């Protein structure tokens, strides 16, 4: 049974399980086939135990089908598959002498990294409130703003209590709780990913706040990835790179938000890679958020991406209606405003894109109610959100795209949603997915859902493919332009 059979098996399982489950438990498994036995490697014990308990029987069934009815021997282990592409190459590990990481960096700071340093507000000496270790500040005439001070950068309002749990974020919340209770333990690093405004930053702060609540002496550093880049560039300019390294490696937990901004910033990736290794080896917790699954981050070093997968990778999905309602009720309660469930439902039905927009809409309604002294009723909400709703309604819907594409190619909408993989339907399906990404505000997972419950990676692949084809295939280019005209005028 060749290793490729495991990939076929994954394809079958991908269609059977929700994307979140698949990406968290099955996708990170690596395989190795020797002497009639398939060895599956899990990134940690938690994943191994979970897969053993929940998925192994189904995995064996699928493999048996794929193997002509012959049941394979499957074993599981924590670790990585021993092969050429094994991400855990000793040569990649930094050399250590007396606990210090030694490295000679060959990569240079790119123009973009310099640009980030210049763009990030506060990357000058003005308004500096740094509380870094003394030696770090003493040696430098100019301080980088106090963004790497520990603890105080956490948003105190972002806690587990203020985070509303729902189907879409259950696993992410549970994993975050585990990390907060046992930082540097089994789930290290914790990689939270998902679309914009869905609560990744909130969860990250909740972990930081909880770590500090349990241990007030804990040093927790939270920062957006641009800040890491800016700090690093500044430290290089000031000849203070060793202090920079020492600081980041001295924290108990390093929380880096929106890691996708590391793309193309070679020197920062390298620096972060070594910091990352040092922290993991020291049993310190690393938490990272990103707008996509690690493997899909473009222009990011493979070794860094593979390390992101060493701990636990969890997706935060867009909230379903009930969760959106619960979030609105919670936010209204926090603002001391009475919101009827009818009013909450009304807003939640209208605003589906993400929690940030939902909050924005609620804020607008509350402000109008204060201003006019009115009660918050559906007609009042409709009036308050008139402009916002007009914008939403003007937007093209996925339904409309599916109908238009199906009609144009003379196939059924049901074909677009089906599992059929013949060329007659796959290309129109890819075109429709790509248009949905371009013309609507829906996230990749939402678009995947709207196309028969497909994984968000399928949507991403479709979008890339259509961009490529527009370059090389005049027929597709013309079709696409026609659709843009049909749908937007
Ligand atoms: N489940 C939830 N319960 C309560 N509030 C939430 C929830 N999810 C998101 N929010 C709120 O929505 C807003 C946006 O969330 P957050 O900033 O964490 O999103 P994000 O996923 O980090 O987005 P981005 O990728 O743009 O950084 C915040 O004010 C947050 O408190």
UniProtKB/TrEMBL annotation:
GO biological process entries: DNA replication initiation; regulation of DNA replication
Primary localization class, coarse: cytoplasm
Protein name: Chromosomal replication initiator protein DnaA
Highest taxon of the lineage: Bacteria
One Pfam family in the UniProt entry: Bac_DnaA
Region (Domain III, AAA+ region): 153-369
CDD domains named in the record: AAA (cd00009), Bac_DnaA_C (cd06571)
Assigned protein family: Belongs to the DnaA family.
InterPro entries: AAA+_ATPase (IPR003593), Chromosome_initiator_DnaA (IPR001957), Chromosome_initiator_DnaA-like (IPR020591), Chromosome_initiator_DnaA_CS (IPR018312), DnaA_C (IPR013159), DnaA_dom (IPR013317), DnaA_N_dom (IPR024633), DnaA_N_sf (IPR038454)
The protein's role, per its UniProt record: Plays an essential role in the initiation and regulation of chromosomal replication. ATP-DnaA binds to the origin of replication (oriC) to initiate formation of the DNA replication initiation complex once per cell cycle. Binds the DnaA box (a 9 base pair repeat at the origin) and separates the double-stranded (ds)DNA. Forms a right-handed helical filament on oriC DNA; dsDNA binds to the exterior of the filament while single-stranded (ss)DNA is stabiized in the filament's interior.
Subunit structure: Oligomerizes as a right-handed, spiral filament on DNA at oriC.
Gene Ontology molecular function: ATP binding; DNA replication origin binding; lipid binding
Keywords: ATP-binding, Cytoplasm, DNA replication, DNA-binding, Lipid-binding, Nucleotide-binding
GO cellular component: cytoplasm; plasma membrane
Sequence segments annotated as region (Domain IV, binds dsDNA): 370-489
Record note on domains: Domain I is involved in oligomerization and binding regulators, domain II is flexibile and of varying length in different bacteria, domain III forms the AAA+ region, while domain IV binds dsDNA.
